[in-house]
Amino acid sequence: MPVKPFRLRCRYCNQPVDWPPQQPRCPRPSCRGPLQPKRNIVFDAQLIELAAPGMWRYRHLLPPVPDNPISLGEGWTPLLRLEPGSDRLIYVKNETLNPTGSFKDRGAAFLINTIQGEDKIVIDDSSGNAGAALAAYAARAGRPARIFVPATAPEAKKTQIERYGAKLIPVAGDRDAVARAADAFAQQPNVFYASHVWHPGYALAMQTIAWETWEQIGRRAPEWVILPAGNGSLLRGVRWGFRALQKAKYIKTLPRLVAVQAENCAPLAAFMAGEYRPGRFQARPTRADGVAAPNPPLIEAMAAAVRKTRGKVVTIPEDTIRQAQTDLARKGFYVEPTAALPYAALPRLASQFNPNDAIVLILTGHGFKAQ
Ligand SMILES: [Zn+2]
């Protein structure tokens, strides 16, 4: 049977919360911790609905949503060899081909289907891609949306958000200031805060990337999955997905998860080195705007995802991000700067790889979104 009834609990205080949560964090005012599944989700391949489009083939393995979910065709993106002629088993999971051009569509699509109450405004704070995704799915659902973005977000992303009809609210200051503005607005009634950072449904939807990869690579786990890490929904979700496969004995070993950050903004690297102080971390500007999150609230959970998979954190200097983008484009993959980080990490990991290791790079966002 599917995972019903599905329940959540607070990671900090264990407060149980029913699915679907109507606020993204622990409801106890003194806690407001992150929510996570009460029990591990256990995968069952017999529950894959082969005829369902995109990521909805896994709908019976995800927390329940209504029949005929609102969708724009997200998920089931191609897994391709990085270089068709090469002997090396390096793959790209091309998430740029999602409807709004990034992997965030999986989370936004999933959350839009969990909202109760027809007149709710949906909001998020975002460096751009999560905002564009939510704006698109709000449009599809006929709901008003407000997206809080850093004033410095790339123009293409801001334009995309507005074109979908969402109200764009640029906020001066760093990424944390943007989150505070959204959080304050979310205290009003009739607001659904579809936080891609906090709402557990967002990371839960990212499990579908792990499950698709497992199917597409021949029902096995790659040895490595390399992905950009900003606020951690992708990192945490991919770990949960492979963990669900391991729990059900479809795979023996979890892939080692490599979280890649820009050297100019690498709080997770600092955290792993014991040099991170919450709220005090100083970042420099980076062209990888998708990971420009100096104080990720769930940094502990992100570190756990790396440690528990015997993974790594790799940081990339600014001057190699552009070159990685160009190299990927010369192989046919046009990605935004953030999405080039996993490729840029390859030479830094070379000594760790065995010759027959299968390595998956997640290409998170399209090159049309930011130069
Ligand atoms: Zn709590």
Descriptive overview:
There is one protein chain. 30% of the residues lie in helices and 16% in strands. It has helices at 104-112, 129-141, 155-163, 175-185, 200-216, 233-247, 267-272, 299-307, 318-330, 341-349; strands at 7-10, 16-18, 35-37, 79-81, 90-94, 121-125, 145-150, 167-171, 191-193, 224-228, 256-262, 312-316, 359-363. The chain is globular. The chain has a domain at 79-102 and 200-369: Rossmann fold (3-Layer(aba) Sandwich), CATH 3.40.50. It contains ten helices and 13 strands. The N and C termini lie far apart (46 Å). It is of the alpha/beta class and 371 residues long. The mean pLDDT is 95. Strands 4-5-13-10-11-12 form a six-stranded mixed beta sheet, with helices on both faces. Zinc ion (ZN) binds next to loops.
Shape: globular
Strand content: 15-25%
Tally of DSSP β-strands: 13
List ligands, each type once: zinc ion
For the largest beta-sheet, the strand count, sense and barrel status come to:
6 strands, mixed
State the CATH topology of the domain at 79-102 and 200-369: Rossmann fold
State the share of residues found in helices, binned by percent: 25-40%
Poorly predicted ranges (pLDDT <50, ≥5 residues)?
Answer: none
Strand order of the largest sheet: 4-5-13-10-11-12
- Mean pLDDT rating: 95
**Continuous helix count:** 10
Spatial separation of the terminal alpha carbons: 46 Å
Structural class: alpha/beta
Please tell me the CATH architecture of the domain at 79-102 and 200-369 by its name: 3-Layer(aba) Sandwich
CATH class (first level) name of the domain at 79-102 and 200-369: Alpha Beta
